[in-house]
Amino acid sequence: MGIVISTFEWVPPFAQGNVKDMRPRWALAEAGLEYEVHPLKPGEADGADYRRWQPFGQVPAYRDDTVALFESGAILLHIAQLSDVLRPRDTQEAADVTSWVFSALSTVEPRVEGMILPKLFNAGEAWVAGWTSHAERLVELRLKSLSAHLEGRDWLAGRFSVADIVMVTVLRGLRNEPVLARYPVVAAYLQRGLARPGFEAAMAAQIETFAAHAPA
Amino acid sequence: MGIVISTFEWVPPFAQGNVKDMRPRWALAEAGLEYEVHPLKPGEADGADYRRWQPFGQVPAYRDDTVALFESGAILLHIAQLSDVLRPRDTQEAADVTSWVFSALSTVEPRVEGMILPKLFNAGEAWVAGWTSHAERLVELRLKSLSAHLEGRDWLAGRFSVADIVMVTVLRGLRNEPVLARYPVVAAYLQRGLARPGFEAAMAAQIETFAAHAPA
């Protein structure tokens, strides 16, 4: 069977390139590992079969010949162990990578999504402007801390790791937001990540899945 | 040196019992492992020394004789490995626990905190009511999925694990919210978690730290 990751069969253009199977696709590209996708048909994410694999109906979920997982952070820590390129070299490097994967998902991503999702999905509702202004101040606190850590570093945990894959995909949500430009060290880190061939390969692969299932 | 976790020296009463060093304290109590705390003095969380340990100035951070970590999810996965009680028994159980730890922190906690924190910290601002109503609908989607998974199960990944420690501390934020009562399977799971002696030990230990440093 080999490695299989779930994705949606198709999403609208504004979401293409942002769906979170970008993360395992990117890690697998860096690792040079082959994989297949399981594209979810409309409604399939809410069905009992898929919920046994991913209880919240989200993507990505992952399986290989030995194990099944869900949540992009868990999937990336697992993929790193399969790869001579991505596997941490010692106990402290593994601890740093794991800490930063959680940090990207638990400390940074909620602030970023909190700021940008209501502008996309709730445009015009009365509370959006007030909330967004508050949420941008919360994002800025994170960018300030992240900038201090990245000063003089190319990657979060020394050399490139799965933590950078998660953090770059999180920060990419801010690429058109003025708040990012106020933190040039973070903006340069984002550019460094997006310039990797592995990111480009993941993007091309995700778009290919959606193109194959585009509505007539 | 042994195990050391950081916490704040003191927080106001409404925050006591909710600070996130509750999670490693609980795990260490379940594991029967001794630890010391490093209580941060006012301002210390923003200092360069602490930022080298925890780049965002948050608590908890963790160190022992072999490794340093931050982010409660990373710390709990590490503690589980130190403990015959909490260590997963096979590869799939480890994958389930890791998936659920990420799920609690990345899929559930942002929705819960998004709903309850503005009511605490931004009371009276014009956007809070509209946002909170939206945020409660988002929480409800998660509770619905979680309820379906927990139906017929005592714990998220089969037997009790560090994933339950994280999820229970996340859901505890909803204990006085009407939305929780609409999901009795989840409410019963929360009560099951909070009834464990390990939770009570963690609570007593956290309160003891704050009491030792209470303002005159």
Task: Please characterize this protein's 3D structure.
2 copies of one chain form a homodimer. With 216 residues, chain A is of the alpha+beta class. Chain A folds into 2 domains: 4-86 and 198-212, Glutaredoxin, CATH 3.40.30.10; 91-196, Glutathione S-transferase Yfyf (Class Pi), Chain A, domain 2, CATH 1.20.1050. The first copy, chain A, is built from 9 helices and 4 strands; from the N terminus they run E-H-E-H-E-E-H-H-H-H-H-H-H. Chain A has a 4-stranded mixed sheet, with helices on one face. In chain A, strand 3 (61-63) and strand 4 (68-70) form a beta hairpin. The two termini of chain A are 31 Å apart. The model of chain A has no long low-confidence stretch (mean pLDDT 97). Chains A and B meet through strand 4, helix 3, helix 4 and helix 5 of A and strand 4, helix 3, helix 4 and helix 5 of B. Chains A, B: InterPro entries: Glutathione-S-Trfase_C-like (IPR010987), Glutathione-S-Trfase_C_sf (IPR036282), Glutathione_S-Trfase (IPR040079), Glutathione_S-Trfase_N (IPR004045), GST_C (IPR004046), Thioredoxin-like_sf (IPR036249). Chains A, B: This is Glutathione S-transferase. Chains A, B: Residues 90-211 form the GST C-terminal domain. Chains A, B: Residues 8-87 form the GST N-terminal domain.
